Amino acid sequence: MTSPPEEHVEAETRAVGPSASNVGVQVLVLSGAAKGTTRPVGERLRVGKAPDNDLVLPDDTVSRQHCELTRDAGGIRVRDLGSTNGTRVGGARVSEAIVQPGAVLKVGEVELALRPAVRNVEVLPSEHTWFGAALGQSLAMRSIFGVLERIAKTDATVLLEGETGTGKDVLARALWTESARAQGPFVVVDCGAVSYSLLESELFGHERGAFTGAVAARQGAFELADGGTVFLDEIGELPIDVQPKLLRVLETREYRRVGGNKTLKTDVRVVAATKRNLLREVQAGKFREDLYFRLAVVPLTVPALRARREDVPLLVAHILKASGGGLTVGDETMQGLAAHDWPGNVRELRNVLDRAIYLARATGQAELHMVSLPVTGAQGGVGDAFAFDAGKSYRETRAKYDAEFERRYVKWLLARHGGNVSAAAREAKMDRKHLHDMAKKHGLRGPEADEE
Description:
Elements: E1 15-16, E2 25-29, E3 38-40, E4 44-48, E5 55-56, E6 67-72, E7 75-80, E8 87-89, E9 92-94, E10 96-99, E11 104-107, E12 110-116, E13 122-123, E14 130-131, E15 134-135, H1 139-151, E16 158-161, H2 168-177, E17 186-190, H3 199-204, H4 221-224, E18 229-233, H5 243-252, E19 254-256, E20 263-265, E21 269-274, H6 278-283, H7 289-295, E22 298-301, H8 312-322, E23 328-329, H9 331-339, H10 345-362, E24 367-368, H11 394-416, H12 421-428, H13 432-441
């Protein structure tokens, strides 16, 4: 495991319950009448339509004794038991094969996913206070590190959920650097930042002439990342009509470029992140359930900074050291930082400290005695704006504060979405062009809306 810049710490990840060789694997039924059913693989798992099987699949395409799964030193051994409609792995019919957690099997027409049973195996918190570049001494973060340390070397798909600014992108990159694919590419696709019309091309590439402006063929993320990792940031923003195409890639590891007829294969690990609650999005019909199950092989929720305040001193020390050192933080200032709610999480903490560091150095101070914290709450910072002028009419006064309200609202809205006008417009239920014009009128440009 790569050591952090500060020091190298030797530690061992431990498990309670199953032995160290027992990584814990369960089968999840993705389709058919038994959809949602899970069973641990154990030493042997028999699958079929007959009631004496360990996993019963009441489907006409499934044989009475269809297949069995057994543990093997190299993974999970899948053996077909002479079924009528066959057992398939990655679209290919097999009589016997060894697969890894994260694989999807097709038993007749019923799909089964092999998932690391991280929820059924008690994983002790890591003894490290870091994982790659991610830092945290709290129990919540060390518990996440403990899981990631165990599954980093596998190809299991990981879904990171949590508020914006919690460090999901840092954890995704750390997962790549600690994996067996660290020598391969790490390709990022921000599903919320790429325009709707170009997102499919960004993922799968396109052929020359596929659409207006496609003057040359272009490789997509799944082609560029072959042998490495694809990080799908803000996967919750993926348009509903693109989701089936991503689902196909995850299921078969095959895809076609936009405008192309040739089927290409890809060998990538997928890590996805979102600030949305995808299960809630599934229930609302905004995200495909089958795609969710394929992404959430190892689902992890990254806690907000306010839920792990004990990590603030460690993060502050790291940010100060990364800035070049030479500055310290007084006890009173540190207490104020730890007490703040940080709605923007670690990203907001970094921005506040960066501003304080620049000011301290500009004035020759060696200690950050006081840090100006942003005001939280829906009405933050507006109260002192209402200083009325007796020389102005009601209409003039209202026009002034209407404009101020508009500026502050647009600034707040864009800051929530990192400057992404499309995502901000969707949340506010307003026309994207109108929001863009309002931002332009008030001199707000993307991430600059975070700054005063």
